Amino acid sequence: MAMDNGAATCSEAGGLSAIQLQEQVDENLRYAAAASFAGVFNALIALVVFWSAALALPLVLWGVLVLIGSGIRLLVIRLGDDKTREKKRWIEGIALYNGIVWGAGVAAGAALASPAQYVVVVILCSGMMGASVTTYTSMARAAMLFVIPVGIGGLMALMIHPIAPTVPGIALLGCYMILLASGAKRRQSRFLERIWARDHLARSSATVKLLLNDYESQSSDWLWQVDSAGIILNPSERFREVSGIDEDMPGHMSFLDLFDESRGRDILKDHIHGQHPFRDLTLRLTIRDEPHWWTLSAQRDDQGGMRGVAADVTAQKRAEERVRYMAHYDELTELANRFLFNETLQRHLSKMAEYPAGEAANHAPDNQLAVLCLDLDGFKSVNDTLGHPTGDRLLAVVAQRILGSVRNQDMVARLGGDEFAVLILGNKAAERAEYIAGRILETVSQPFDLDGAQVATSVSIGIASWNPAHGAEKLHGPVNAATMMKQADLALYAAKEGGRNRFARFERQMDIAARERRDLEMDLRNALQNGEFELHFQPLINIETGQTTSFEALVRWNHPERGIVMPDDFIGIAEDTGLITELGEWIIRHACHLASNWPSHMRVSVNLSPVQMRSTGLVATIFSAIANAGLDPSRLELEITENVLLHDSEANIAILHQLHEFGVRIALDDFGTGYSSLNYLRSFPFDKIKIDRCFVTDLADSEDCKAIVRAVTELAGSLGMTTTAEGVELESQLEELKVQGCTEAQGFLFSRPERPDQFTDLRGTGLDAASDGEPANLAILKLASTKPDTADDTEGARGPAIRSA
């Protein structure tokens, strides 16, 4: 606040120093040349636009006036540095002159302008006004001396020209001038604040330097003196104060007795007894039960003793120890940090790797080693709902519970955030790892009472171990901390994928899968540009009539080396990397384009993933795809799962309402496999519910499945929704679905997902070329085999974004 007030005072009172005023003028003149050339260039444009034989003389005269103003502005630059205030007056005078010239030009030009020429007048007027705020960046008055005349000319232009919107134009121009005035004032204020702050910093630096010099002249160090036997002689008041010794101390107190036993004390003893000079010897001593550190320097005196200077460096030592502690330990939990953990792990690995191959087995199992990587489940929700202080408290308590689950020789560290690690050493560490992991799972899963708030959480754990008898083969690579941590991370990822609140041990297949995932990710980034994706379609059949009502679009990746890659192998990668948005847009647009050529009663279904729903451009993409394809919005059906509604449900439901109001149909996919909350059906008017294949598979033999399917169909019917059963493969399943009142069926009984050219209608036309205006009963005839040889290519293997994507 002091800086702001000071700057304001300077600017308002005109109390700038000569140097500061010089900088203000120089800052303005820095733009003078560019502004002058720009003004001349704009004038040339105006002359070209308005040139005619009848107007030649006034145009030339006006151009000359512009050149004069620009020339004088350039000449001001050449004035001497001792004429700063004169320069400032010239700058302001030239600004007013140029403003009058341009304002008159704008008014006169508007009076003579055609509609097209009037547009040029408006552009030049607004452009020159706006540019002046930049060119006069440090001088608000100069900027306004230019803006006001030009603005007056603009007002006259609005009143003169017949096509000008006079009242709105005057209002807009007035607002524009006010904004320019405000902007010019702010830019000048910020410039002056920077000058003041710089000068204030310079003055402060000079003051600090003066104080430091004064401190050095009155040093707080003190003198000490000992005889040849090391007995303290003539201790000063300052010496007594800092050492804590009494005034009536015995006259034969040894200087060495002040210091704690250490290597430094032995060195001091040798120097005193040998009468060797020394410098900057730091020793530890205890004063009033607290540790202190002194730095000593001394020379031999004429009496055979030593004289020297002592300085208390306790604060410096404590600061160094604090820095050293912070570099190796986590401040919140007081556990080792990532750096210390990795350093310790690498040290033990290197030591174990030194055993010759023939001796390694002799040292096992006493020298085994295991690493546990831990990650709290749901920690983010604790932070979000209860606040960061509670989250920090939870981390500290979890750290203590982990410490209570391991042995004293084991090492626990906080790697960052909600990630922890445990290093298990010694006897049968690899076997003990699972036991310790189980103990940690049990103790962390117990509820926490954090300042009256009951918090329940769990932890997922990944385990990697190494036995020196196995050598580097156990790590499948170099013996180093990075490799072991990577393997423990992969195991942790597997534990989370397996349902959380569990542990998993690293297996070689995890590393292979991770490498394959990285390779796929690299290929995936180029797949769209290379046109490697294609859509397959699977029909949905009306159970009552046998008609095909729609096709579900299912994406496939035609990899140049791997062949067809199924969605389960790449959709998750696309979602994690953000590529799903671009891929999903391609699918939506391509599906709409193909569907636009189908019979008018035929719909296309496209799945949306939760990641796509978070895209700000989703609605615009869908609207654009429908418009570009010329598709009736009701022929596009978007399928979502309950996961879309679990997070940001209000925002997602708002998006669904926007799409639904446009005419797009919305279906709830995989109903029955998630929470199956009836509140979802209440919060949004879905057009369709899709019954998951798990209820269809055992439908013919399971009364439970029949009851569930019947309940879903009745519920959907009462809410005005249709139902589609997925994964229908048998006639018996189809018959039972018909009995239970299901509307549509989808599955291998009718067709597996295929390219659009693999389907024909009764006229033999491919699905990708079918035309409108023919009978609505489109019977699907497969060009390839109707029944699949395997169940690999099922719609159940679509993945969440095939389905979106």
Automatic annotation (TrEMBL):
The keyword Metal-binding does not apply. InterPro entries: Biofilm_reg_signaling (IPR052155), EAL_dom (IPR001633), EAL_sf (IPR035919), GGDEF_dom (IPR000160), Nucleotide_cyclase (IPR029787), PAS (IPR000014), PAS-like_dom_sf (IPR035965), Rev_trsase/Diguanyl_cyclase (IPR043128). Residues 367-508 form the GGDEF domain. It comes from the Bacteria. The chain crosses the membrane at residues 31-53, 59-79, 91-112, 118-136, 143-160. Residues 517-767 form the EAL domain. PROSITE patterns: EAL, GGDEF. Residues 783-805 are annotated as: Disordered. Residues 503-530 form a coiled coil. CDD domains: EAL, GGDEF, PAS. The keyword Cell inner membrane does not apply. Its EC number is 2.7.3.-. It holds the Pfam family EAL. SMART domains: EAL, GGDEF. Keywords: Coiled coil, Membrane, Transferase, Transmembrane, Transmembrane helix. One of its GO terms (molecular function) is transferase activity. This is Cyclic di-GMP phosphodiesterase Gmr.
